[in-house]
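Researcher: Structure prediction, please.
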Amino acid sequence: MIFEIFLVFLLSYVSGSIPFGLILTKLFLNKDIREVGSKNIGATNVLRAGNKFIAGLTLFLDIFKGVTPILITNYYFPNLIYLSGLMAFLGHIFPVWLKFKGGKGIATYLGIIFALSLKLGLFFCVSWILITFITKYSSLSSIVSTLIIFLISLFQNNFELNSFLFITFVIILYTHRQNIVRLKNKTEDKIKL
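Model: Predicted structure follows.
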């Protein structure tokens, strides 16, 4: 059992830690995304680098790296799917390859949610799109949508899922702490859709 936990821990973390935003912007735009906009490696900041296709591809791959370890873990070690999800999520936020300075976790979180529950994944997407359309703030949409998913999950009476979604919500609040300050000060950048 210890070996299984270690294997899931390691593979999920490594999957989550692949910095697709950095890799794609270096390959196709000859830019270091860590020197653009918010200096974040996620899809929203890749969009600020000026290429919608590369931003979309980053978003897709960041979602994919959340989905993949969950599906593999669910097939071989279904009792460890929440560990797998948490490690993929933390891998994206704290990648060892980038001195533990990664993205804010939303796209990878979405991939994990879709792998755990198609319904919750769709709820997140609808919520995020509506809030972004109304406010134009990606950060606010991410925070509120993550909270909504946690609250919806409480009706499912699944302690492990509820705990996982609460932990990820708290971590997302932490990764968005500077955005929260800028939202409060009305200095947060809006996104152009």
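Model: The chain is about 75% helix and 0% strand.
Researcher: Thanks, that helps.
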